[in-house]
Structure formats: structure tokens, C-alpha cells
Write a structure and sequence with these properties.
By secondary structure, this protein is an alpha/beta fold. It folds into two domains: 217 residues, YjeF N-terminal domain (Rossmann fold, 3-Layer(aba) Sandwich), CATH 3.40.50.10260; 259 residues, UDP-N-acetylmuramoyl-L-alanine:D-glutamate ligase. It has an eleven-stranded mixed beta sheet with strand order 1-9-18-17-16-15-14-13-10-11-12, with helices on both faces. A seven-stranded parallel beta sheet has the order 4-3-2-5-6-7-8, sandwiched between helices. Strand 17 and strand 18 form a beta hairpin. The chain starts with a strand and ends with a helix. Bound molecules: ligand NAX, adenosine-5'-diphosphate and potassium ion. The site of ligand NAX has 29 residues, from helix 1, helix 2 and helix 3.
């Protein structure tokens, strides 16, 4: 599990640890890890550290201090290091002295862009977890120069200007190739749009003790997903594995039903029941589906329902499904048709799977606002509806109604932005719900497999939603190491 902690939690842990260590020890740990990472980057871009050109962008806080100490280490190994001081009278004193002793030079911001343009490596120590809002005016030309230069840009702790706690980006920020972060990941390193500015992320252990339950966000890894995947045992039969009901599709959108069933068949349930007007299309493609002409109530027992993909205006089916006392996944048209009160008063778990546009409609804000604030949007919806919420997009975020860390999915690919891939996801997640996984686990496991399947299906070329569904078994095998 990759876990991310809020700034407040990180600062508390730092304070506790600092009280037990000699003055400045933590910063030295951070700087040592940072310098080692920079040396590796310089090896790649300049062939070696000795004789390479390094520019440090140094703000007025400890983030700048880290950059200065790391710069001093690189200067001692023969790099030509120049520190650009954004606030010369407030730059970290100890760091500045160390850099000067090591032969580094300093300059103020105005003439710096030319040096940045010639650098092999730019170290962004403008601002870290102490930052508020986007970059201040004086720092913007430096961030622009770094973006234009052919130098590798390494961010200290965070790309300067992003919101560490939320992943929001308000104003100008530094775009990094690599972010070296200290003690713990911050949510902003896992969640777009900020994540996109971080580049690759490397964590340097500085000895902070951070309990898993205090995490703000977490990203499942292969090993975590492997433990969650339901695997049939000797005593399993199709009913014990779980039956998932899919109430989807309409005369206008029969394909949504086919794609949701395609996902559901590959999600671990022992059987898929389909109810709705697209039964013929479903059977033609997937003869193993149990198709019913009756509504959800009379379709036979299921352990979870998926409702909504391609449902058009069929509000009564949505209402019928919501009345069932089993877990329900609501997607697409179902989100619009569901009565909020009926969702809130459900006793069994509910999982809602909106994309940003659907979430925006439910929240009464713009799509851009949701895309800019994924974490708070997912949490807000989960709280309003008393449901788990899986907010789809470039970073998929899954929030529980009762708080706790959000799950962030890192396996996706923008090739998944193709019509119908969301239908596949809802079938897959519903199937996992039917096997007995809690909503948060079902949603995050489905997003993980779906992202991986998207990568396997696309391999750098466009793939249709049905290709993604077909690649789900390969994603399972990959996760399980088979
Ligand atoms: N606290 C600790 O024990 C450790 C902290 N470390 C480093 O210390 C950093 C935090 O240091 P600070 O608390 O001094 O805070 P920062 O250095 O992150 O930022 C504070 C300074 O930046 C300025 N600033 C705020 N918002 C800005 C913006 N939008 N644009 C430009 N400047 C802005 C503020 O005026 C303030 O002077 C971490 O990110 C990390 O790099 C590491 O050395 C590890 C140990
Ligand atoms: N830029 C992106 N990067 C990664 N995944 C994406 C991106 N855009 C969309 N996706 C994923 O693709 C799927 C699209 O679902 P959705 O928007 O519901 O499409 P549809 O309604 O056509 O099925 C979701 O799983 C979403 O997370
Ligand atoms: K930084």
C-alpha cells in the first residue's frame, strides 16, 4: 500500500522525531536522500556529477534549506552549483553557509533565467509543505525558465505551488520530472491535477513514525489487490461465489448492457443475471448470462446489483433496485434517476460511480470544479449520499461515507477515455461487490484491474471498451503473479 498523509500529520510526526534528535538531523537526512537522487539524475543527463551544472531555486523556508544542503553535497562532488535566492535575506542560514563552504555561488532572481536555461539539473526548493496557493509572482519566471530549459527538474518534497493536502492547483506551479519527497507521500503527489506536475515520485525515509490509520489517501499495489481478489475454493459453487444482477441498457443503448455484463462476467461472481430490454443483445454476445424478462424484484436472488448504465429514463427500475437489501452500484443514468433520499436511507452498502460531469451535476457545480478538486468532491458526495463514491477520471478516487483514507487508483491510462469503458468498470465492480467485498474494496479493486486491463488492451494504441473487458482476466493474472 502506498499511503499519503496530510501536512498536519506529517508536521506532528516531524515534531515528535525532532525532539529526540540533534538539531538539524532531519534536514540532513532529507538532503542526503535528495542529493543521492540528484546524483543519479545527473548521471543520466550529464554523464556524471563532476563538472555538471546545477541551479537551485531557493525559497525562504526549510524547503529551500533542503535544496541548499543537497546543493552543497553536489558541489563537494564537483558540480557547479548556483543558488537562486528568491528572498536573499530570509534564505536558510545554515544551508547557505554550507553551500558557500562547498564552493557554490548565489545570485538573486532577475538574471537567473539564463543560468536555468544552461543547467543540467534544476532543483526546485521554492516552497514545500509550507506553501499557500500557487507560486508567488517573483517565482513564476523561474518556473517558466525551468519548463523551457532542457534541464531535468527535480522538486524538493513537492512541485512548488501545488496543494499538498488536496492535489489542487491554483495558479502557477513548477513542473518536475522527479519529485523527491520526505517522510511520507502527500495526497497531492497521488491526485491530479497536482500529481501530473510531480513527475516520478521517490520517497526518502527520514524515520517518521506514521500510523496507517492516520493516512489521508492510499493507493493499492499489486500485493494489496492480490489479497482482496476473491478466488473460488474447493467448496465453491456458482451461487456461493455470488450472483451479480445487472439492470442496464435500453432500446436506445443496448451496448451499455452488453459492456456492463462483459465486465461483470470477469469480476469473480459465479453468475450474472441481466434484467432489462437488451436481453437479446446480451445473450447473443454472452450466452452464459441468466436473462430475465421480469423487473429486478422478480429476477431471482442476487448478492449485488449494478443499475444505470445506458438506462435512459427508466426511473422505476432504479427505484426497484435501490429498494433491494443487497449492495447496489449506481452508475451513469442511474445517478441522475436515483432519489437521493432513497439512497441515503438504504441499509445495505451503496457504491456510486460518477465521472466528473455526473459528479458535478449531483453537486451543483461545474465539471472543472470537480476535476480541480477530486478529493473533496468525492468526500462531499459520499457524505451527502451516505454512499461510497468512486469518482472516475485521470485519477480515480474512492471515498467511504464514514471517512477514513480515500483510495486513489494509479493504474489507469488515458486510453481508457473511450465510450463504454465506464460500463465495463461498473459491471466489474458490481461483480466484486457480489462476491462479498466491501464497497471501498470492490470499487478500488475494480478501478485497479480496469486500469491495468486498459493498459494491457491499449499497449499504446486505441482500444475499444470491449477490448478492455477482454483484458480483465490478464489483469487478474498479472496481479496474482500467475
Ligand atoms: N519540518 C521538518 O522536520 C522537515 C522539513 N523539511 C522540509 O521543510 C519543508 C517545509 O518547510 P517550511 O515549513 O519552512 O515551509 P516551506 O519552505 O515549504 O515554505 C514556507 C516559505 O515559503 C513561502 N511561501 C509560502 N507560499 C508560497 C508560495 N505560494 N510561493 C512562494 N513562496 C511561498 C513562505 O513565505 C515561507 O517563507 C518541507 O517541505 C521539507 O522540504 C525537510 O527538511 C525534512 C524535515
Ligand atoms: N484521462 C484519463 N486517464 C485515465 N483514465 C481515464 C481518463 N479518462 C477516463 N478514464 C477512465 O475511463 C473510464 C471512462 O468511464 P466513463 O466516463 O463512465 O465513460 P462511459 O460513460 O463512456 O463508459 C473510467 O474508468 C475513467 O476512470
Ligand atoms: K518544492
Amino acid at each position: 500500500m502506498r499511503t499519503a498523509y496530510s501536512v498536519e500529520t506529517v508536521r506532528n510526526a516531524e515534531r515528535e522525531l525532532m525532539a529526540r534528535l540533534p538539531e538539524g538531523a532531519l534536514m540532513q537526512r532529507a538532503a542526503a536522500g535528495l542529493a543521492a537522487a540528484c546524483a543519479q539524475v545527473l548521471g543520466r543527463v550529464a554523464g556524471r556529477v563532476y563538472g555538471s551544472r546545477v541551479v537551485l531555486l531557493v525559497g525562504s523556508g526549510d524547503n529551500g534549506g533542503d535544496a541548499l544542503y543537497a546543493g552543497a553535497r553536489l558541489a563537494r562532488r564537483g558540480a557547479g552549483v548556483t543558488a537562486v535566492l528568491l528572498a536573499p535575506d530570509r534564505a536558510h542560514g545554515g544551508g547557505l553557509a554550507a553551500l558557500r563552504r562547498a564552493g557554490g555561488r548565489t545570485m538573486s532572481g532577475e538574471s537567473a533565467p539564463a543560468d536555468v536555461a544552461r543547467a543540467d539539473l534544476v532543483l526546485d526548493g521554492i516552497v514545500g509543505i509550507g506553501g499557500k496557493g500557487g507560486l508567488r509572482e517573483a517565482a513564476v519566471p523561474l518556473a517558466d525558465a525551468a519548463a523551457r530549459s532542457r534541464a531535468a527538474v527535480v522538486a524538493v518534497d513537492l512541485p512548488s505551488g501545488v496543494d499538498a493536502d488536496t492535489g489542487e492547483v491554483r495558479g502557477a506551479v513548477v513542473r518536475a520530472d522527479l519529485t523527491v519527497t520526505f517522510g511520507a507521500h502527500k495526497p497531492g503527489l497521488l491526485i491530479d491535477p497536482a500529481r501530473e506536475y510531480a513527475g516520478a515520485v521517490r520517497l526518502v525515509d527520514i524515520g517518521l513514525a506514521l500510523p496507517a490509520e492516520a493516512a489521508e489517501a492510499e493507493a493499492l499495489q499489486h500485493a494489496d489487490v492480490a489479497l482482496l481478489l476473491p478466488v473460488p475454493g474447493a467448496e465453491s459453487d456458482k451461487y456461493r461465489r455470488g450472483v451479480v444482477g445487472v439492470a442496464a441498457g435500453s432500446a436506445r443503448y443496448p451496448g451499455a448492457a452488453v459492456l456492463a455484463v462483459a465486465g461483470a462476467l470477469r469480476g469473480g461472481a459465479g453468475a450474472v443475471r441481466y434484467v432489462g430490454p437488451a436481453g437479446d443483445a446480451v445473450i447473443a454476445r454472452f450466452p452464459e448470462t441468466l436473462v430475465s424478462d421480469e423487473g429486478p424484484k422478480r429476477a431471482g436472488r442476487v448478492q449485488a446489483w449494478v443499475v444505470g448504465p445506458g438506462a435512459g429514463d427508466d426511473a422505476s427500475t432504479v427505484a426497484e433496485v435501490l429498494a433491494a437489501e443487497v449492495p447496489v452500484l449506481i452508475d451513469a443514468d442511474g445517478l441522475r434517476l436515483a432519489d437521493p433520499e432513497a439512497v441515503r436511507s438504504r441499509t445495505a452498502p451503496t457504491l456510486m460511480t460518477p465521472h466528473a460531469g455526473e459528479a458535478a451535476a449531483l453537486l451543483g457545480v461545474s465539471r472543472e470544479e470537480v476535476e480541480g478538486a477530486r478529493l473533496s468532491s468525492a468526500r462531499e458526495l459520499a457524505a451527502r449520499y451516505g454512499a461510497a463514491v468512486l469518482l472516475k477520471g485521470s485519477t480515480t478516487v474512492v471515498a467511504s461515507p464514514d471517512g477514513g483514507p480515500v483510495r486513489v487508483n494509479a493504474t489507469g491510462t488515458s486510453w481508457l477515455a473511450t465510450a463504454g469503458s465506464g460500463d465495463v468498470l461498473s459491471g466489474l465492480a458490481g461483480s466484486l461487490l457480489a462476491t462479498g467485498l466491501p464497497a471501498l474494496d470492490a470499487g478500488s479493486t475494480a478501478a485497479y484491474l480496469h486500469g491495468l486491463a486498459g493498459r494491457l488492451a491499449a499497449r499504446g494504441a486505441p482500444a475499444g471498451a470491449h477490448d478492455v473487458a477482454k483484458a480483465i482476466p490478464a489483469a487478474w493474472r498479472d496481479v496474482r503473479g500467475d
